[in-house]
Amino acid sequence: MENDPGRTRYQVFKRNTGPLHFQHMQKDPFALDRLDIRFQWGRYGIQVLRCHLVAFDAATTIPAHKHREYEFHFIAWGQGSVTLDDGTFPLQAGMFYLTGPQVMHRQDIDAWDPMNELCLHVDIVELDNQSVPDLSKDHSWGRQPEILEADECVRQLNTMPAHPTLDQYDAMDWFLTAFSAWYDRESGAYSTIRQSIIQILLRAARAHALTQIHTALPSRDMNAYRYQLATQYIRDNYARAITLEEVAGEVHICGRQLQRIMTEQSNETFSAYLERYRLSQVCLSLMHTDLTVEQVAVQHGFSNGSYLHYVFKKRIGQTPLRYREQQRPAKSVDPPPV
Q1: Using one digit for the tens of pLDDT, what is the confidence trace for 64-88?
Q2: Exposure string for 218-230, b = 16+ CB within 10 A, e = fewer
Q3: To pair with 52 at 20 to 30 A between CA atoms, which of 37, 127, 200, 298?
Q4: Collapsing DSSP states into helix, strand and coil, what is residue 287?
Q5: What percent of the chain has pLDDT over 90?
Q6: What pTM was estimated for this model as a whole?
Q7: Quick check: 276 and 336 in contact, CB under 8 A?
Q8: What ranges in 39-132 are assigned the alpha helix state H?
Q9: Which domains does the chain have, with CATH numbers?
């Protein structure tokens, strides 16, 4: 059986991975999230928002949501399904999928089999021309091939089909490489982690394209970081019914802790922030569209026009229609700050 050519790559993966394969990373699954990893790759700025191993209990559902960044989901072990724009697809160990910018996705864990997922969540931003040398003139220190490789990788990611596939180029192993660099405090840990992130991006794109540490790694202000993630999630999903517990789960903390962070960072509760942001978007709609109050309400997360009328008058001091009448002639007036 060891040399049986009939074995599929998936069968080989199941034999060589699982809880024991990622046992080292289970010592501190969210360790890399505490590092502020950002670097330039070619003509792009890369910021790592998350790089961790997360465990989901059997029969868990991660509700439909989206991000404006790239999020890679690698199934380390377990099984379930993911619902994307093109339908519902089965998930099993050794598979991965990408939810690129603004891709709505929902994940359901098998009723009997828990799942562990390796998650890489990165922001990829194209830099201005002053940050990137002219390809026709820059041939030193390997910059030209790096720029070309980064360009091709990002192009492939942006055209990648929205459905799961096998991790046939072993991108998952680079999560372990990055974690080990941090855990072992090896010399050059930051460079190893940087290269690990690049390798995950390259190998994921390719799948669909057929000692002591001597320098301190940058640390995050974790409360500010979690506040940033939570408020961005709220802004991306405010137009539907979202709860404190859902957003807290997205940031991997409890609701009580998120409430405390929200109050500490913005001096307002989760509900107050969500309502204020919804109202700011309502103000923009009233100023720049001809939608009815009922339509504006439904479009921006309020149950109906009557409830929006009540909240708007309480918070803004006037009715939605009166606000529209006053603001339209004076287009230079901005909506309440968010």
Answers
A1: 998 889 999 999 999 999 999 889 9
A2: eeeeeeebbbebb
A3: 127
A4: helix
A5: 72
A6: 0.75
A7: yes
A8: none
A9: 9-208 (2.60.120.10), 222-327 (1.10.10.60)
